[in-house]
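Hi everyone, sorry if this is the wrong subforum. Our group has a chain we'd like a structural model of before ordering constructs, and none of us has done structure prediction before. Sequence below.
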Amino acid sequence: MRNEPALPLSEAASAPSPWRVETATRASRTFAILAVALVLVAIALPVFGSRTLIQQLFGVLTMLTLAQNWNMLAGYAGLVSVGQQAFVGIGGYALFAGVVIGGLDPVAAILIGGLAAAILAVPTAFFVFRLQGAYFAIGTWVVAEVVRLLVMQWQALGGGTGTSLPRGAVRGLWGVEWIEATFGVRGGEARDILAYWLALALALATIGFVYALMRSRAGLGLAAVRDNEAAAGAVGVDARRLKTLVYFFAAFGTGLAGALIYMQSARISPDAAFSVLDWTAYVIFIVVIGGIGTIEGPILGVIVFFVLQYFLADLGAWYLIALGVIAIAVMLFAPRGLWGLISDRYDLHLFPVRRRLKGPRTDTKGA
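Answer:
Right subforum, don't worry. Here is the predicted structure as tokens:
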């Protein structure tokens, strides 16, 4: 057989390789098209949806934002926090301070809530990052309780009983007049639509940020740290730096969500704003049953949570018992959550982050 002449080195270097690295799958491409259509429908929902539906979806979207931020901490960085209510509460109180004391529009003050939470994360990280495992979790809860007790002394914002947003500020929200004129609705319903749109934008931005993070080099480092921190450090991954950055990002996103929640309710109190049940226990439940360490998990988990809430909320204390039993059952029989079962059975990844080496004949999965 005659040998083919070898290509010059310069031509061989410039020749296209038959191998390529991909992350997208056929399912993810199809889902991307469906997701765009779903987002467009969600944006247009106030045209044909009821006020009750918009209020319910506001709750779904804000809880989804909180769940994605907690999942970023625990699922990707290995930081199991039970004190995220500190950032929800400080975000809400920072918004009220910006409006009541600073005279800001509540919509603009939402950003103040996120910044205040990020600033709070600095001294919080200084203390809790010296703890490991269960001690870290307990430390975050202790910090949240300390912040709650300090806020209760803030008499300008109602002290222990809380306060409400001024009526003038509530009526003069940015965009409300345009919504009233466009949709022909009154002030209260117009404010619900505005809050819903802001919650939708925040949830989409959070999901997009987490997806972009996990597809980046920093995301690869986080995955390595989560799986084996010692081994990751041995190959040059700065685990402390990555965990600190994720902690600040999660605090900022959680603070934004807290500010938005209390802008919509227009009423705040320390017990409600720093509730470990509402803003941490429920969020952990959502992530655990949905699937920790995945973007799809919190989305599925928040749907299951609100379905259960709709059918079981009237049971009182039995509702909480039912949630606990369900969480235990999922942890025993599906440690990776409901989405873990689905993805394992059907090899389905709507937000793929794993690298796959594609060749002319064989496909090899990458790390």
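For your construct planning: The chain has one domain: 24-365. DSSP finds 17 helices and five strands in the chain.
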